[in-house]
From TrEMBL:
PANTHER family: GLUTATHIONE S-TRANSFERASE (PTHR11571), HEMATOPOIETIC PROSTAGLANDIN D SYNTHASE (PTHR11571:SF224)
GO biological process: glutathione metabolic process
Annotated protein name in UniProt: glutathione transferase
EC number(s) on file: 2.5.1.18
Keyword Transferase assigned: yes
Xref: Gene3D superfamilies: 1.20.1050.130
Amino acid sequence: QSIVLEVDGQKIPQSLSIARFVAKQFNLAGKDNLEQAKTDAVIDTIAETAEKLGPLIFEEDESKKQIEMKRFITDDLPKQLKDLDTLQSSYGQGAPYFVGNSLTWADLSFYDVSQCLLDIDQNVLEKYPKLKRNREEVAKQPKVAAYLRNRPETSF
């Protein structure tokens, strides 16, 4: 079953389209067209990581899951994290955020996906201090911090 957001009687499918729409509604998409394009570039990179990780999380064959997860962590993930680190360095203007000097949905998305990665390997971000700093900054946002304190414990 696919996720759908209904706005004024219009249905919007696809999780990234919905997230992008909501981000724009709440000023989390970037301050101008260029920042929005940069945010989209970060989101696309995060989505590539999530697309590779998702099937591994749901793999039912434990032996295959362990082999593929190890391959993902050692082969695929370092490239993805390096790409994200490069984007953060380029677009973050010295701030801890991925784009500009304020929170975007790219930061929230990375927090979410990186939590899954940290649940698999708690040292996965050790070589990426800027990405760790980004997570710390996101977790300090008052509404995010309140949510993290009070959310139910789930697998995702």
